[in-house]
Design a protein that fits this description.
By secondary structure, the protein is mainly alpha-helical. It has 10 helices and no strands. The longest helix has 18 residues, at 6-23.
Length: 192
């Protein structure tokens, strides 16, 4: 086996850092891996990883500022930016970014999932369902999509009075509601 090129080594270190962050949440170790990757072969991916680290350390606002310094934005970075914009309650900017990605045909399943969540935040459950269905066509077995779809389908069977639109996030587990707040028409019942 030959020696890996520096750019490949750095890419593997960044990948390891992302896994370490997702699994162990060991920020110190993640920073070490990121610094080593940057030392071996600097890349625009260093800013993307730095923004991810900042998100876990300080929150979405600081992560968004760092991500804004990236010159080369791929679909994952764009989706991350849209999610950060939603977390900082800048729904209009998130909506515009997601609409641009869809119009440019760069959207992936996560783009449509985020668009669905953004629509939900804007109290448009019908549009949220439409976008989550588009996402499901792209990645039908992806667990996050299936969960998000289930939440929207559940809310589709409820009276608007029972839907927690006042939240600034998608509820992790929808709460059961009184039977009187469940719609009884055929279309709504199919969502259950």
């Amino acid at each position: 086996i030959g020696v890996l090129e520096p750019a490949v080594k750095a890419k593997l270190l960044r990948f390891e850092a992302r896994i370490e962050l997702a699994v162990n949440k060991d920020i110190a170790r993640v920073k070490q891996l990121a610094a080593k990757a940057k030392e071996i072969s600097p890349s625009n991916d260093d800013e993307k990883l730095a923004s991810l680290i900042l998100y876990h350390e300080k929150g979405p606002k600081e992560a968004l500022e760092t991500l804004s310094r990236c010159n080369d934005e791929d679909i994952n970075s764009s989706n991350f930016r849209a999610a950060l914009l939603m977390e900082t309650e800048n729904l209009k900017a998130a909506q515009e970014l997601l609409d641009d990605l869809i119009a440019q045909e760069k959207a992936d399943a996560e783009t449509f999932r985020l668009k669905a969540i953004c629509s939900f935040y804007q109290k448009n459950l019908e549009e949220a369902r439409l976008h989550i269905q588009k996402a499901m066509k792209k990645k039908p077995r992806w667990e996050h999509l299936r969960f998000t779809a289930a939440v929207f389908y559940y809310y589709s069977a409820l009276s608007p009075a029972a839907i927690p639109y006042d939240y600034n996030y998608l509820p992790q587990f929808p709460s059961p509601v009184d039977w009187m707040l469940i719609k009884r028409d055929g279309t709504s019942s199919k969502w259950l």
